[in-house]
# Entry
Amino acid sequence: MAQNPGFDQLRKILLEQDREEREELAKKLSELDDQLNSRDKLELRVDPILNDYEQHLKEKFSYLFGPQITESISKQIKDSQDEVVEVLYPIIGRMIKKYITNEIQKLSEKVDQQMELAFSWEGWKIRIKAWFTGTPQKELMISKLIEPKIEEIFVIERDSGIVMGTFSRKESVDQDMVAGMLTAIKAFVEDAFTKEKQELESIDYENYKIVLKSFKSFFIAVVTSGGMSMAFRDKLDDQLIDFADKVLKNARSESDESEEDQLSGRLAEFFNEFENGDK
Amino acid sequence: MAISKKVILVGHFGVGKTSLIRRFVHQKFSDDYLTTIGVKIDKKVLQVDDMEVTLIIWDIAGETNQAKIPKSYQLGAHGVLYVFDITRPSTYQNLHEQLDYLKGVLPNAPVEIIANKKDLISEEKQEEVLNEIALEGIRTSSAKTGESVEEIFEALAKAMVS
# Structure
């Protein structure tokens, strides 16, 4: 059966647009296929996106993954303590070894100095002093090695915590507030822990010791550094009692305005050369 | 002439003792509440006439009953600031009794009574509370706005040196 030419013409007109669209689609599909299967072309398109995301991750890494990483590390350390110790042991060991070597070297230098001292006039003085005072010679030698030193002295009114006089070898923090806090600490410890009438005698912190000597209406706080030997403590006690007896009794009868300055001056007289002198 | 005086701030907890000191010494205020543990010492120098007065201020942790505070914190004080919260009746209901106790411990120390947090209630309500307490010389203050804070410490300093 012969086709009607009019019908063919009509079909051509109606499907022309569809055909063009199909060809266009096929072309785009072919391009897309080319881009997806060609590494170079795909990289060109995807790289900027990945770079942006990589930058974002870098900036927000700790925020996004911090808690999980911390948790994971904590868990890992907890679960593998032996392994952690194994890893850290050599590092810590080396640090400790280095520190001890350093300290031994310092001690060795001091021992050398003491050996020189042993055969000097000073050495004989120590022997005689040890013999007279009954303090073992080794204690006197050790106290020489780590010499105790008075850093600061506060004379403080007992109840009010008001500073009556000070002696200091360095610029310290506010002396009024230190005196107040020492009074408060002393009061707290004595109230809280002592059933009978007892006094707080010292406060220790690392290389420092605060020696507290209480009298009726005031107390004296002496901040010392270095090793506190019994001999030094005895000598300090004697000197504090002597100071209280000779100076503080009179100081209270003097005028208010100059009392603190005068007392501070007398403290300096009594304690400036304390470590070296025989006072 | 220079002189040092110990001042203690006492009263129930949360009445604003630490805030008053913070306002007076550091000119600051914070709404955050951190309870004082034990005691905290602060210091400020005031000029009273021709005298330089160093106030050593003991901010003592709040207690509903002053007898519970270690006596050694109170002893030796030259002046007392008793602080209560004007918006909380429980902080001033035992005021007379507490003042009697403090007078017993420190018979010669002047005492200033402070009704703090006045910024939180109206003038009428403040009057009402002060009438209820019926005690002469109570000063109202606000650590938050700073109102009357300086004046209170100055008045106490004057009373201590006179």
